[in-house]
Write a structure and sequence with these properties.
Layout lengths: L1 H23 L3 H17 L2 H21 L4 H4 L2 H14 L2
């Protein structure tokens, strides 16, 4: 079970890295496709999968985008944007 959990988290980290690289390179259409894929995984996945997408992927990508002063509202799909807003509200920022 431990290897499975590590693998899921590592996959989400890698997926976030790929999304971030697309943003850095200016390939916004690819970044949007990746974000939409994450949205689809988030909406159709198990509770464990939803937690991983929210806690690893959304957190990593949103932090990266904020540091780069990207407009998050234009890129994040609806459900991922809602998760981002939950994270912001929970952090007290």
């Amino acid at each position: 079970m431990k290897n499975k959990i590590n693998t899921i988290y590592k996959q989400a980290e890698r997926f976030a890295e790929i999304t971030n690289k697309a943003i850095i390179s200016g390939n916004i259409s690819r970044a949007k496709k990746l974000l939409n894929s994450a949205e689809n995984i988030f909406e159709t996945g198990s509770n464990e999968t939803k937690n991983v997408i929210s806690n690893v992927y959304v957190y990593s990508v949103s932090t990266f985008m904020e540091l780069r002063h990207c407009n998050i509202s234009n890129l994040f799909p609806k459900s991922l944007k809602a998760e981002y807003i939950k994270q912001i509200n929970a952090s007290g920022v």
